């Protein structure tokens, strides 16, 4: 027994900012103070509040230390762990109120959250199967194998209303029942852990923080559809997740929870990990399976659907990480419990990766139906630097931008579609007035052009033509006629592309056209970028009333575009200016602006 | 983009070839192994020149075209050698809206190379990458395995100076 536990976040964000060194310093300092038998250091998964990383929580007090550095560790050990005095200067400021220390669940960031898929992240040691078992791990699998028939398992998942968390939101139980209905000598269960949507990292956090939940759920799926082999397709860019997954699979085999005759019921199931090699299109189910087969990850037409002809031509079920992470809880707590959360057609919770121009970047899990306002303003802590909210982007390169006017729409699959975006995997990037919406649309198009696999023409050629037209807009060379062409090409690509990548690629353009058409028009007609992003349309000017003639700007200008005598107002020659912004950055009097 | 054939001479050794061939021979299932084998080959050689892809095709019993098709499809595979220090700037959405594009451009200017290229002295190579999942630290770049987060354009010089 240990009297205290020090939980250190070992997720990618905190590891990047040095949590590995913090752990080793803790271990060294504890040993130095003879506390290593009394205090245990645990490397956990992600706590979610990545903005404050590296994060350390000390239990039983529940003290939440944020932005900890290795130099701070001796103080925490000596003061807190040896003398019992909490080091308040390092505490997350939200947990301190009138000298009283609040529990994490009382802070704005955690108060409205409800953790189902992330329940074990930041709580258990993901590299130790015993800790997972201690929180009811593998009990759901045992229950399925010994108490339920495969049909009953599928019925529970159907009744829960769980829909796929990877993008399109197809009902999981229905998907399973299709694969179960097809007789075959071999079937497969696959997990999509190729989180390609830039800005989303919930799947990575689940794999890093709670890998056994995914393994257990895949075994349950195997039992439900009659498969004995599973594959987890995970990005090679997630080394920590891959390592923990491999450790977890090894431990599960050792404990007889994977392999032959699980729980003595005669059910066989085993798992292999396949590393993705970096292709966004492999998030599409048929492309992912082609990639597991070792080939170019190109999608194929559906039907036949994977439930009929999937991996190696056999019936296959494919779900994403977050979907699987919900399964064991649904089995243990029942379909009604899960269905009691969320909205009419979207049950349960959803994890969002908050990023961009927001205070509390990180992972949040909220019941479906939570509004954007609650997520951005209350949980996310609003926009930094006193800037104004402009849009939230959801669904990554397949989604769209949601403007402030839809701040109070309850977020679920159907509502997001109705306002021109989509759930996608749950990336939620906040943008402020300094972001140009045409530039953002162009950014996503560049991504899809790059990632288009090239198999079908509407996507391969269409997205490229679309990008060229957007480029004209950002350079001030487009006409209003081009705007109509952009729109009709968008619909053409959507209707005619082979797979989800092409069918959704125009969404960022269409949604920004829908809500921010005036910005497009400003670029085309006024040759002006209202947010001051598109370089070709910018002009730097010096306000003669504010300029003191200090000459600093003319000295930093790399193009020699600024002239003027000492102590007299300077001016910028637009013909020579390369719009690097160095002058504006250096001016001490705020005399230089771009417009 | 940068996945063109390299002009640099191939410097692979017999040991490397033996390591690769014995890895392939030990595989239980060769039918779906092209990606796995190329990942191993890149680990051994650092990149995938034509000579290495021919070894892979030969040992797996598939056509060189099939191997080339796979190696040019996935962004993880590089047909060019990388620099001694590999710089990747994240251009994922969260980093992009926080200005990682400017950081990338600053590196292009400082190093005098484009994305996907290597400096003539072989010291640095530069690439843009898509989301490493450290969005909480945006904007982010990595040099080899070191991650630098919450960056501004002014940090570029001091980071380069460390290598």
DSSP E strands of chain A, number: 20
Instruction: State the major sheet of chain B.
Output: 4 strands, mixed
Q: What's the CATH H-level superfamily name of the largest domain in chain A?
A: NADH-ubiquinone oxidoreductase 51kDa subunit
Number of strands of chain B: 4
* Greatest interface and its participating residue counts: A-B, 51 and 37 residues
Helix content of chain B: 40-55%
CATH C-level class of the largest domain in chain A: Alpha Beta
Tell me the Rg of chain B in angstroms: 18 Å
Which shape of chain B, going by the Cα principal axes?
Answer: elongated
CATH overall fold name of the largest domain in chain B: Glutaredoxin
Name the CATH architecture of the largest domain in chain B: 3-Layer(aba) Sandwich
Indicate how many domains the architecture of chain A comprises: 5
Q: Which class best fits the helix and strand makeup of chain A?
A: alpha/beta
Q: What is the residue-averaged pLDDT of chain A? A: 94
Major sheet: arrangement of strands of chain A: 9-10-8-7-11
Question: Which quaternary structure do these chains form?
Answer: heterodimer
The CATH topology of the largest domain in chain A is what? Rossmann fold
| Overall form of chain A | globular
Number of domains of chain B: 2
Please tell me the CATH architecture of the largest domain in chain A by its name. 3-Layer(aba) Sandwich
Offer a concise description of the structure.
Chain A is α/β, with parallel strands linked by helices and 595 residues long.
Polypeptide structure, described:
The complex is a heterodimer of chains A (595) and B (163). Chain A contains 24 helices and 20 strands. Chain A is of the alpha/beta class and 595 residues long. In chain A, 55% of the residues are buried. In chain A, helix 7 (150-160) runs antiparallel to helix 8, helix 10 packs across helix 13 (321-333) and helix 18 runs antiparallel to helix 19. Chain B folds into two domains: 14-71, Arc Repressor Mutant, subunit A (Orthogonal Bundle), CATH 1.10.10; 85-161, Glutaredoxin (3-Layer(aba) Sandwich). Chain B has a four-stranded mixed β-sheet with strand order 2-1-3-4, with helices on one face. The radius of gyration of chain B is 18 Å and the shape is elongated. The mean pLDDT of chain B is 89. The interface between A and B is large, with 51 and 37 residues.
């Amino acid at each position: 027994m240990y009297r205290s536990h020090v939980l250190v976040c070992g997720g990618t964000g905190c590891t990047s900012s040095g949590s590995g060194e913090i752990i080793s310093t803790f271990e060294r300092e504890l040993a130095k103070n003879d506390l290593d038998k009394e205090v245990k250091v645990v490397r956990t998964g992600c706590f979610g509040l990545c903005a404050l990383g590296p994060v350390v929580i000390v239990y039983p007090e529940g003290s939440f230390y944020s932005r900890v550095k290795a130099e701070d560790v001796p103080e925490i050990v000596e003061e807190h762990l040896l003398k019992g005095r909490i080091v308040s200067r390092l505490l997350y400021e939200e947990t301190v109120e009138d000298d009283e220390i609040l529990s994490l669940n009382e802070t704005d960031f955690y108060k409205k959250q409800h953790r189902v898929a992330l329940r074990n992240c930041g709580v258990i040691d993901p590299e130790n199967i015993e800790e997972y078992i201690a929180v009811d791990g593998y009990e759901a699998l045992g229950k399925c194998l010994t108490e339920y028939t495969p049909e009953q398992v599928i019925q529970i998942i159907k009744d829960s209303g769980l829909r796929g968390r990877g993008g399109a939101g197809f009902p999981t139980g229905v998907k399973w029942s299709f694969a179960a209905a097809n007789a075959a000598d071999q079937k497969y269960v696959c997990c999509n852990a190729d989180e390609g949507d830039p800005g989303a990292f919930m799947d990575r956090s689940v794999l890093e923080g709670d890998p056994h939940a995914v393994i257990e759920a895949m075994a349950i799926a195997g039992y439900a559809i009659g498969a004995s082999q599973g594959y987890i397709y995970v990005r090679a860019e997630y080394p920590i997740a891959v390592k923990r997954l491999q450790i977890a699979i090894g431990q599960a085999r050792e404990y007889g929870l994977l392999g032959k005759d699980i729980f003595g019921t005669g059910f066989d199931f085993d798992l292999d990990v396949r590393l993705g090699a970096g292709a966004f299109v492999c998030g599409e189910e048929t492309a992912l399976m082609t990639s597991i087969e070792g080939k170019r990850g190109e999608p194929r037409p559906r039907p036949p659907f994977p439930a009929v002809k999937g991996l190696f031509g056999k019936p296959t079920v494919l779900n994403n990480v977050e979907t699987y992470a919900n399964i064991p809880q649904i089995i243990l707590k029942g379909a009604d419990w899960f269905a009691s959360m969320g909205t009419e057609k979207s049950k349960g919770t959803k994890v969002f990766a908050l990023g961009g121009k927001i205070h509390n970047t990180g992972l949040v899990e909220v019941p479906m139906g939570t509004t954007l306002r609650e997520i951005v303003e209350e949980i996310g802590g609003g926009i930094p630097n006193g800037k104004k909210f402009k849009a939230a982007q959801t669904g990554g390169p397949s989604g769209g931008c949601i403007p402030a006017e839809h701040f109070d729409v309850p977020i679920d699959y159907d509502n997001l579609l109705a306002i021109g975006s989509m759930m996608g995997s749950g990336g939620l990037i906040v943008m402020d007035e300094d972001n140009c919406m045409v530039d953002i649309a162009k950014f996503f198009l560049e991504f899809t052009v790059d990632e288009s696999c090239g198999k079908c023409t509407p996507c391969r050629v269409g997205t490229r033509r679309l990008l060229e037209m957007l480029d004209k807009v950002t350079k001030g060379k487009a006409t209003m006629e081009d705007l109509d062409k952009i729109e009709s090409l968008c619909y053409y690509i959507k209707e005619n592309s082979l797979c989800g990548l092409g069918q959704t690629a125009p969404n960022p353009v269409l949604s920004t056209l829908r809500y921010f058409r005036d910005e497009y028009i400003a670029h085309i007609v006024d040759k002006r970028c209202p947010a001051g992003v598109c370089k070709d349309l910018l002009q730097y000017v010096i306000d003669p009333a504010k300029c003191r003639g200090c000459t600093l700007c003319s000295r930093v200008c790399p193009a020699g575009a600024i002239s003027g005598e000492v102590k007299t107002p300077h001016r910028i020659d637009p013909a020579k200016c390369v719009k690097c912004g160095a002058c504006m950055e250096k001016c001490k009097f705020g005399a230089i602006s771009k417009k | 983009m940068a996945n063109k054939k390299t002009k640099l001479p191939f410097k692979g050794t017999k040991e490397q070839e033996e390591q690769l061939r014995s890895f392939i021979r030990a595989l239980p299932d060769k039918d779906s192994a092209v990606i796995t084998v190329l990942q191993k080959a890149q680990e051994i050689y650092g990149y995938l020149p034509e000579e290495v892809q021919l070894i892979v095709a030969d040992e797996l019993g598939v056509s060189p075209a099939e191997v080339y098709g796979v190696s040019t499809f996935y962004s993880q595979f590089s047909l060019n050698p990388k620099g001694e220090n590999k710089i990747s700037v994240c251009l994922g959405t969260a980093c992009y809206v926080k200005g990682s594009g400017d950081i990338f451009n600053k590196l292009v200017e400082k190093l005098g190379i484009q994305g996907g290229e290597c400096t003539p002295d072989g010291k640095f190579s530069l690439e843009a990458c898509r989301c490493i999942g450290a969005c909480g630290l945006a904007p982010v770049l990595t040099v080899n395995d070191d991650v630098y987060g919450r960056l501004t354009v002014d940090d570029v010089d001091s980071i380069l100076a460390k290598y």
